Amino acid sequence: MQIFTCPFCGPRDEREFHFAAEAGKTRPDTTGEVSAETWATYLHAQRNDKGRTREVWMHLPCAELFLMERDSVTMEVFSTQSLRKAPQ
Amino acid sequence: MTLRLPTGGLIDRSKPLHFTFDGKPFQGYAGDTLASALLASGPRILGRSFKYHRPRGLWGAWVDEPNAIMSVTLQGRTFPNCLATTTYLEDGMEARAVNAWPSAQFDIKSGLDLFHRWFAAGFYYKTFMWPDWHLFEPMIRRMAGLGHVSPQHLDDYSSDQTHERCDTLVIGGGPAGLAAAEAAAQSGQNTLLVDDHATLGGTAHQLPEIDATPTPDWIAARRSAIEAAGGRILTATTAVGIYDHNLVGLAQSGPFGTAPRLIRLRAGRIILATGAIDRPLTFANNDRPGVMALAAAAEYLARYATLPGRDIALLANTPEADTIAAQLTQAGATITRIDPAQNPLSARGGKRLTALQAGDRTHPADTILASGGLTPLVHLWRHAGGKLDWCEARNAFLPGTPPQNMTAAGAANGTFDTDQALEEARATGQNAPIKRPAPTHRITPHWPTPGSPGRQWIDFQHDVTLKDVELAARENYTSVEHLKRYTTLGMASDQGKTSNMPGLAAMAAIQGRPIPEIGTTTFRPPFVPVPIEMYHGPHSKQLWNPLKRLPLEPQHRTANAALGDYGGWLRPGWYGTGDPETRAQSEARMARDTAAIFDASPLGKIEIMGPDAEAFVNFIYYNTIATLKPGKIRYGFMLTEGGAVFDDGVIARLDANRFVISCSSSHVDSVRTHLEAWRQDGNDPDRIFIHDTTQHWATLTVTGPKARQILDTLDLDTDLPHMSLRETEWRDTPLRLARVSFTGDTSFELSLRASHAPALWDALTQAAKPLNAGPIGVEALSILRAEKGFLMIGKDTDGETMPHDLGFPAPRQKKTTPFVGDRSLHTDKANAPDRKQLVGLTVPSGTPPLPTGAHLVTEDAPPRSLGYVTSSYHSPTLGRPIALALVANGTDRIGDTVTAWHLGETRQVTISPPCALDPEGDRLDA
Amino acid sequence: MTRYSALSLFREGLRGHKGWSQAWRSPKPKPEYDAIVIGGGGHGLATAYYLAKNHKITNVAVLEKGWLGGGNTGRNTTVIRSNYFYPESAALYDFGVKLYEGLSRDLNYNVMFSQRGMIVTAHSDHDMEMAARQTNAMRLNGVDAELLDRDQVLKRIPLANTRPDCRHPIHGGVLQPRAGTGRHDAVAWGFARAADTRGVDIIQNCEVTGVITEAGRCVGVETSLGPIRAGVLGAATAGHSSVIASMAGIDLPITSYALQAFVSEPLKPVMDTVWLAPPFGTYFSQSDKGGLVIGGGLDRVPSYGQRGNLPMQETVLAGLAEMVPALAKVKLLRHWAGIVDVTPDSSPIIGPSGLNGLYLNCGWGTGGFKSIPAGGWLLAHLMATGAHHDLSRPFDLARFPTGHLIDEGAASCIAH
């Protein structure tokens, strides 16, 4: 049972979290032409890094998405941070 | 002849306990283990080995015992594979050696040993191939295995599961552990000490005094000091595994026959003080009953006041050997010290040991105590990812580079000298660890000698001998993992606690490589076998996956509903008693003839609000929602980004910035997650808000030709066009009245706060009665909606279904704004001509309904699947069977006759539009 | 090489097993081979064997970073089955089962394929409808299948939970009689020995650290033992496929997860078949040695750490105790984890990698063991001919842009 720190709720049991996606994916603008390859890359391609990773997770009880940096081998968590922009 | 001493030990001689072993009566004392009581009472053969059925006695005194494995019955409850050395004796126990019949003493399969030469390591890989493995396998399966599992289900055999935390966890309550825990607690750390024995002290009991204090007093003083400083102590508690982020699994044992408690402990740091075990010496017939670990003999003497035998040959050269020999002598045993370096060594005797042959000399003995040196118990260190270093002086793997927040102290760290261990432990406890003290003694290695004569056991339980290791090396199974798997060395129920070191040392010797180059196999949890129940606990029966309950459940029960699991909700399947199918048919008929009331409360009711809500729902839905006017309702699909239909339902617009979406009752949680993920990804989450009110609001549907009449009696204004809604009040509570129809008849959905649902239910059902209308369950509704060709997600769709397969092609072609899954609707697969589309199926009147799950097939030989029946019922309204199906290119096949195929039987069916009843929709406003 | 048989075993027994030869050699790598297979697990070794046997390409090296068979081949729960819904999957996996049926004699190594059947139980009326859909699909795919009612399931699994308080009572199930279990290590060793006999060099403790490309073509690999060149390369590295692919600059549609497995202490026979109960998320069988071999779902945290965590252990083992309450008192002996390569549709990737000269066999996720002979056969075909075998074509990477996913989870009640 790993402990992840939700930026809003604090440290919680891994069972409360859902792995959403690798960080850094941008949805192609589908109002324009999107090639099958571009779309497939967006949908399916994964870096699947061994070692340090940047991922988007959801804390299910509060439903907030956040960014987590962790190590996929040692399971060490380096940081979690909110996806929300800082107030202007 | 008893080997029990008149005084001493930790046993309570005032509490004699009676038990049987292999049917014979014996007596022991409170504080005994099954093993110590048997050892004291005389029987030597306590088990049989796995493969050769060799007679076996005790090697160890605790978790490292490989031989004495028993089925134990107490109060009519039988537990298989109990280790005699860790099973505390209770009055009335009936123990039986496993893998032996009729008894360990006279085992009918003992003759197998005569054929041992053909049962060498891996023999089964080389034969049993002709004519077929299946010919031999049943016999081999019967021969294998240890205990029998009784088919009993023990009702009260249930584990507690708790959570704990501490700053410092000390594992092991021997001298080092006690000292470390005391130092930790006194320096202000929240400290927990666990020890797997029922009595604290570990190997301290073998010492007459510690720190110039009599040992019992010393232990008591440490206990008091720990507790006085706020520390906690758990005995009979084993740390079975260490997992990520310093989570420790603790198994806390209770009386025999109860399931251990699982304590999920989060420790700030861990001090490993698990001690060390003796490793066997490898010599001919070293598996004979009477060959015992030196440390085990010391334990039997100290804890249980039992001698291992009378005439003892002692084969060891560790410093501990002198002390133990003196103690045994003092207790009345005759000790002959023999240098283990003598060659060759061989145990003499069969079922009973008679002598030790050392070189030319025969030393009569009933017991051989052997030690090849101490092996630190580093299992947990390895679970946590710590490294091991080889120490030549100690001839052992010691804790090396530590895992995060873990240190080792005492014998577990290779510090075998008690004074040094105490110093090291105290420093570690104070969080000021010192360098590992230099060993006080350099032990002479006594590893297996390749090529030496005789059968020399490496793994006792699994009958792996030195020759098997030599064979593995000859065949190039030289990696330590290959060695283990090929010979099964270390795979027995002791998981190699005794066999791993001799095994890899043998391989090192055969190959002429240093031991550390061979390495160890992976240490895996659990440290000792633990009952599966420990992981189960309260997650049982209905709590395995608790059903969601309706606010109207009491009303449904009063109405004699048959409640069942529908999508994780406990819902009425039908009302009344009798054949379910008949009930469903008559309820469906009633709904068409008069009216029906249906509890639709599990339907998802998720509100989406905020200035960007319109754009958001327009993006989330396949259908265009932006054009929906306030007060109006639209049916739509949510898709995955892969384009598959994820959920369907109606979306109602309450005002410009507020929507209520309904979703399938079993999908509410996943829809909410889906919505939240998109809300926060690319949107301003402060301009869109999502509120799931599913369980706050109840929904009752009134449907049928007389639905209006029922609502009229409640003074509700039913002047509402189809697919629209009104926010109103009923008995001073807010009520949402919506006109949507899942039956094809005039239907109203009434949603209100769950607390008011019983009043509404009562009012509706009372109003329905005079009209011969009443409640219907899920089964009838399933028929009604199928008559209309209305689909159910997950039943009439699969994970590949796209909206244009369901007769909703327009947004795919025309919607200009982006939406989830949009691009995926234009892949090669999405455009394929053979997509499975939702259609109806017609079979002649008078024939039975098609089996749901039947396939539609081509006329090829053999036939190929075109699709399958997803819903099938007898329609009481039409008086004939109806069905829905997903069929390749189904829409274009409407009117065609195809073959339905079910378990080899075929029928002819005609493909028809999905809607079988009232395709013009006249009933909607009838 | 000594041929294995009852006779040779008898003869060697008489002379102390002194005459057995090495099961495989431990050669030093040559600077260049006709073909290199990256990954010395079951799939890699099978690829090498079929390159030699089917295509007469024997100047082959298998590069293994640890010990052969030490990845998922030696960590799985040994289930072999082809109870699949889509024709493409059924054809692929049943090809695997058929190869397994003749494998012991083909390799002259007893892999102990034990066709004790596999039952996937149904626990509701809806499940029974899905079970019928599944059974019919399997039969139409040419795979053996039987639709069982509750009594028929209980006859085969007498210890199954029949208590009235069971949350998910058994309604029936789907049986594949030809499914079963095999001895996982023996599969790796059998292929290794047979490949070695045909001249293949199996190089253990040789880690691939990079790919060598010339003019846009993969011509070899950098390894911990130096560069090794080859005419054609194939990768069969399961959970580490993304690591190898990234050396070639390719992001695969793969996420790696830890999959745990469990074994109990040995028991006298109590369970004669393989049983998966989807609502409990657990399946198990009993090995010939007597241990219950138990598996379940993935740990939900993407991982390369070859160890499991407590939450999924609790889920899987609690599931077992619900399936068979009498087994709650049985003791767990050991649990471990492997790293599995999961694709979006949980179907494998077999085909060109996108870099000329490098072919892939990966993405088997939790189902790699049963496909070892098939995966090896098909990768060997690709490497030898440069073209797809009919069975592997649907599993090309091209299915992702075209949308032709083969998602068994989407279609059937069979869990992966």
Return residue spans of chain A where pLDDT drops below 50 for at least 5 consecutive residues. none
Counted beta strands of chain C: 18
- Overall geometry of chain A: globular
**Structural class by SSE content of chain A:** mainly beta
The Rg value of chain C, from CA coordinates, equals 21 Å
β-strand amount of chain C: 25-35%
Structural class label of chain C = alpha/beta
H/E element sequence of chain C: HEHEEHHEHEHEEHEEEEHEEEEHEEEHHH
- Please tell me what the overall shape of chain C is: globular
Our Rg estimate of chain A from Cα atoms comes to: 15 Å
Taking pLDDT < 50 over at least 5 consecutive residues as the criterion, the unreliable ranges of chain C are: none
| Share of helix of chain C, binned | 25-40%
Query: How much beta of chain A, percentage-wise?
Result: 35-45%
Spatial gap, N to C terminus of chain A: 37 Å
Count of alpha and pi helical runs of chain A: 1
Would you tell me the overall average pLDDT of chain C?
96
Number of helices of chain C: 12
Describe the protein in words.
The complex is a heterotrimer of chains A (88), B (926) and C (416). With 88 residues, chain A is mainly beta. Chain A is built from one helix and six strands, in the order E-E-E-H-E-E-E. In chain B, strands 8, 9, 12, 13, 14, 15 and 27 form a seven-stranded mixed sheet that branches. A six-stranded mixed sheet of chain B has the order 40-41-42-39-33-43. In chain B, a hairpin with a 7-residue loop joins strand 45 and strand 46. Chain C is 30% helix and 25% strand. Chain C starts with 5 loop residues before the first helix and ends in a 5-residue tail after the last helix. In chain C, strands 1, 2, 8, 9, 10, 11, 17 and 18 form an eight-stranded mixed sheet that branches. Chains in contact: A-B, A-C, B-C. Chains B and C meet through strand 6, helix 2, helix 9, helix 10 and strand 30 of B and helix 1, helix 5, helix 7, helix 9 and strand 16 of C.
